[in-house]
């Protein structure tokens, strides 16, 4: 009977066959321990010489990443985190791998990134992708269960939602076009049709940054909600992030263990999250000796980390100055210098994972903001239509998938959180 490794518990004591690869092996003169992987998990196979000398010699000659069918009996194994192993009585080699470049010794990050197509096979990278997959599944579950509809904004756009020059330009036949920075504006249009929506897709930033938090291509989850004020949106963000964390804890314990993730930190992630205004954050930083920050300036990674260190869970920084935020954000009535927005900062130095705001819903105000930003009204006529015809208060946010994966898995660089990351000066493989 052919099974996968993740089904082993159902077949304890039974004879089965698994299609797999040899991750690595170790052994002695009497026994070979084969570390097997099949894409669903990792399991040890045991080959004992006194049971079958020919099979033992065959196992002894296996090379790293050789593909094969391995047959044997599933046994419980309390010493293993997985809980089961196979007593092997048959090996059928499919393809003998020779000279596999990623050996068990240590390798530098550039070498590993050059071989990303193979590095994905490693135990830790497999665990990171499992966590990413769970976050993707849990995202769909959360929004579908709460009455949201998924919409798919275009990747090719004629304008910039963020109003920056960090755009990838291309030609759309005889017109200028850009790779999308965000699906937000289109999600707003869909919210006016469906009430509550979310998009989940790739976004691109031509930002020449080499920090551990930045990718050129990354995935964003972007809900938009009609009739939701800023405070309503913050509550959704809290519920969503808490849900993601608890789902990863429930379904990815083995993966978190492989990554040596301190789960006690994640277990404390429960709503509500603490909040601090931008103004309070500046004062706090200045008290902590950050003389480089003044009111009106944006925060960098050291500033966000210092703020996050005061809390044992994610923290909202609210009401940023309007000059450093996007044109579409609603003015804060209690302080016209600021807007109704918030960034959610993850603990442990992982930085901003969510940016959100209440959107301007007044036609004249939005038109003025577009003009002041120098964006040109023509490209935004359709966006202004949303304010011409039945405008309502509405809010939304965007969560960066890769930064969230990095935080929950505990890896230090976002390059490990995308299957094939696109970084500055890296387009291969």
UniProtKB/TrEMBL annotation:
Enzyme class (EC, first level): ligase
Cell compartments where the protein resides: Cytoplasm
Claim: Nucleotide-binding is one of the keywords in the record: yes
PROSITE patterns per UniProt: AA_TRNA_LIGASE_II
EC number assigned by the record: 6.1.1.22
Keywords: Aminoacyl-tRNA synthetase, ATP-binding, Cytoplasm, Ligase, Nucleotide-binding, Protein biosynthesis
GO molecular function terms listed in the Swiss-Prot or TrEMBL record: asparagine-tRNA ligase activity; ATP binding; catalytic activity, acting on a protein; nucleic acid binding; transferase activity
Main location: cytoplasm
Annotated catalysed reactions: tRNA(Asn) + L-asparagine + ATP = L-asparaginyl-tRNA(Asn) + AMP + diphosphate + H(+)
GO cellular component terms, semicolon-separated: cytoplasm
Presence of keyword Ligase: yes
One GO biological process term: asparaginyl-tRNA aminoacylation
Start and end residues of each Aminoacyl-transfer RNA synthetases class-II family profile domain: 131-429
Matching Pfam families: tRNA-synt_2 (PF00152), tRNA_anti-codon (PF01336)
Superkingdom of the source species: Bacteria
SUPFAM superfamilies to which the protein is assigned, alphabetical: Class II aaRS and biotin synthetases, Nucleic acid-binding proteins
HAMAP family named among the record's database cross-references: Asn_tRNA_synth
PANTHER family reported in the protein's UniProt record: ASPARAGINE--TRNA LIGASE, MITOCHONDRIAL-RELATED, ASPARTYL/LYSYL-TRNA SYNTHETASE
Subunit structure: Homodimer.
Family that this chain belongs to: Belongs to the class-II aminoacyl-tRNA synthetase family.
Family annotation (NCBIfam families): asnS, PRK03932.1, PRK05159.1
Protein name: Asparagine--tRNA ligase
Species per Swiss-Prot/TrEMBL record: Salinicoccus roseus
